[in-house]
Amino acid sequence: MNVRQLLDDRLGEAFEQVTKECAPALVSPASRPEYGDYQANGAMAVAKRLKTNPRKLAEDVVGASDLTGIVAETEIAGPGFINLTLSQEFLKGTLARADLVTKVPRRESIVIDYSSPNLAKTLHVGHLRSTIIGDATARTLEILGHNVWRQNHIGDWGTPFGMLVTYLDEQGQSSDDLGNLDHFYALASERFEKDPTFAKAARKFVVDLQSGKEGAITRWKQFIELSTSHMQRIYEQLNISLNPDHTRGESAYNNDLAQVVTDLDEAGLLSLSDGAKCVFLKEFTGKEGKPLPMLVQKSDGGYLYHTTDLAALRYRHKVLNADRILYFTDGRQNLHFRMLFAVAHASEFVPKSTKLEHHPFGKLLDSNGRPFRSRDGSTIPLDHLVEEAFERARAIVQSKNSNLGDREFDEVVRAIAIGAIKYADLSKNRLHDYTFDWDSMLAFEGNTAPYLQYAFARIQSLFSRGNLSSKSYRADIVPENENERNLAIQLCRFQETLELVGREGMPHHLCAYLYELTSRFMRFYETCPVLDAPEKDRKSRLALCARTAKTLETGLNCLGIAVVTRM
User: Fold this and answer.
1) How many separate domains does the chain show?
2) How far apart are CA 315 and CA 301, in angstroms?
3) Which of 140, 249, 393, 487 could form a disulfide with 520 if both were Cys (CB 3.0 to 4.6 A apart)?
C-alpha cells in the first residue's frame, strides 16, 4: 500500500472541496520526528493565490478530510503545515498484509534501453553506470507489476567488425584470444592503418556484409557470438538481469534504415545539406541562431546512429507496444535524445502519448576528480574491476575470522564484492558525477551494501537462535515504544519509495530508504529485547524483525544485490 498516496488522495479531496480548485500534491514524509509521520505543505502557495490565511485554509482542509481509521492525530504547525500521525490500528493493519508490494493498478509496457556496449571492444568501467542503474530500474518496475522489455542496443555493425573478422581469419585466432578484446582490437586497427592489403580486405568484408553475402554473414555471426559470450559472462558476474534474449543490436535495424529515410521525406521533414539528408527542427539551433541538423544519411549513402535510433524507436512502439521508453546513457548525449524524441514525434514514428525519457548520468571519477582509469591511463575492463572487488572482499571476510565453510565463504565474498560495487554507485544521485572509492564502498558501517547485508544477516542470526524462520514467521505487529514505531513507519514507506524509483528512474531513493530502514532497525535492536522480551512483545518484535528482513531482501533484490544469512 502506498500510504503517502492514500493520505494525499484524502487530503486532496478535502482541499478541492474547500477551495473549489484541483487539489495539489500535498503529502511527504515528515522531515523531523516531532512533526508526526507525514506532513502536508501545499496550503501556503494556494492560500497566497487565493489571498486567504494559509493556517485557516489548513484547518479547513483538515476539518473537511476523511482520515478516520488512518490518522490518530493532526496538528497545524507554523504558517500552514499539516502534521499527520498514523493510528496504531492503521499501522497494525498495513503491516499485517502478506504482500510487501502492491501491484500498480495500470500495468504499462515499458522499454528500457541500457548497457549498450560496442561488441568490438571489451566491457569496461564506462559501461558500469548505464548497466547497473538501468538494471535496478528495470527490476523495480517489474516488481511493481509493469511489463518490462529490456533492450541491450549493442554496437555490432560497421567497419570495426570488418577489421576484427579479417584479423581473426588471418591470424587463425580462437575464442580464448578474445578474452582481451581491446588488445585484439588494437592489433586489428594497427594492421588496418598500416597495411593497405589488409585494409582493402576488411573494407571488402564490410561491403559483403552489408550486401548480405552468406559467407560474410556467417563469419560475422560467429564473431558476434564469441564477443557476446564474453559480455554475458561479465553480466552474470555482476548479477545483471540482461540475457541474450534482451540483445537487439544496430544490425537488427539495418534493413529498416532506407525506409526510415523515405518516411521522413514523405513526412516533409528531410532537407539536403552538402549532399547529406538531414532533419531540421526550428527548436534546435546552434551558434548565431543557425538551425542544428539531425543527419540521417551521408552524402555517400551511409546511415548514422540517428537513423538506427529512429528505427529502434519505431520498432519499440509498433512491435513492443511501449507506453514508456527509457534510455540510460551518459549525460553528454542529452542533445541527441532531445532531437531524437522531437523527430520521432514530428514524423509520427511514435505517438505523443508514448512517453520518451532520457535518464542521463554523470561521470565516474577517481579520487583526484579525473575519469576513473588504470594507472597507465587505459580504461579498466569490467572483469578486472570485478576481480579486484573479489580480492578485497575476500581479505575483509578472512580478517573477521569467520567460521564459514568454503562454499559459504565464496558466496559471502561474492555478495559483498558485487553488492559494494553496485550500491556505491546506485546510492548516489545519478545526475551527479560519482567518485569511486574502494575503502568506503566495502565498509561495514555507513551507507554501504555491507552494512545493509550485515543487518539482514543479524536478523537471520536472531531467528536461528530462536529456532524460527524469518520467512514463515507471522504475528501481529503492535509497535509500543518510539523505536518500534519509527521502524514500523519506515516499513510502511516501502511501496511509495518503489513507485518513486519507477517514476523517476533514480535508484538512489531506494538506497536512501534501505539505509534509513537499517539504521532504524539497529536502534530498535539495541534498545528493545526480542527473544528475551515478554511473550506479547516478543511475538510483535519478532514479526517486526521478519518484516524488516523481507523488506531488506526485496529492496536489495531490486538493486540486483544478494543477501547472505551469515557474515
Assistant:
1) 4
2) 23
3) 487
Residue 563 lies in a domain: no
CA-to-CA separations, 271 to 260, 291, 521, in angstroms, rounded: 14, 12, 62
Alpha-carbon distance of 382 to 374, in angstroms, equals 12
In a domain, 370, yes or no: no
Q: Please check the confidence at residue 33 and state whether its pLDDT lies above 70.
A: no
The closest alpha carbon to 544, from 491, 496, 465, belongs to 491
Q: Report how far residue 291's alpha carbon sits from residue 354's, in angstroms, rounded to the nearest whole number.
A: 26
Q: Are 316 and 346 in contact (CB under 8 A)?
A: no
Q: Which residues pair with 148 in a beta bridge?
A: 110
Q: Give yes or no: residues 122 and 184 share one domain.
A: no
The enclosing domain of 139 has a CATH number of 3.40.50.620
74, β-bridge pairs: 84
Ramachandran category for residue 239: left, alpha or beta (phi over 0 → left; psi -120 to 50 → alpha): left
439 in any annotated domain: yes
Among residues 53, 57, 107, 119, the alpha carbon closest in space to that of 82 is found at 57
Q: Pick from 61, 55, 56, 53: which is nearest to 27 by CA?
A: 61
Count the Cβ atoms, other than its own, within 10 Å of residue 391. 12
Spatial separation of the C-alpha atoms in residues 334 and 332, rounded to whole Å: 6
Digit-coded pLDDT (tens) for 341-388? 999 999 999 999 999 999 999 999 988 888 887 666 678 889 999 999
Same domain assignment for residues 502 and 532: yes
Query: What tens digit of pLDDT does each residue of 318-352 get?
Result: 999 999 999 999 999 999 999 999 999 999 999 99
Measured from the Cβ of residue 183, the count of other Cβ atoms closer than 10 Å reads 12
- What is the 3-class SS of 4-59, one letter each residue? HHHHHHHHHHHHHHHHCCCCCCCEEECCCHHHCCEEECCHHHHHHHHCCCHHHHHH
492 C-beta neighbours (distance < 10 Å), count = 21
From residue 338, give the alpha-carbon distance in Å to each of 54, 197, 367.
40, 42, 32
Classify residue 157 by burial, with Cβ atoms within 10 Å: 0-12, 13-18, 19+: buried
Task: State the pTM of this model.
Answer: 0.93
Nearest to 21 by CA among 3, 45, 41, 2: 45
166 and 133, same structural domain?
A: no
Please say which residue of 313, 347, 364 terminates a domain: 364
The amino acid at residue 427 is S
Eight-class DSSP state of 99: -
Cell of 227: 564477443
Q: Work out the angle at residue 169's Cα, subtended by the Cα atoms of residues 164 and 174, and round it to the nearest 5 degrees.
A: 85
Give residue 175's pLDDT. Answer: 47
| Same-domain check for residues 212 and 130 | no
CA distance linking residue 557 with residue 518, whole number of Å: 15
Give the angle subtended at the CA of 552 by the CAs of 546 and 557, to the nearest 5°: 130
User: Tens digit of pLDDT for each residue in 509-523?
Assistant: 999 999 999 999 999
User: What is the C-alpha to C-alpha distance for residues 112 and 507, in angstroms, rounded to an integer?
Assistant: 14
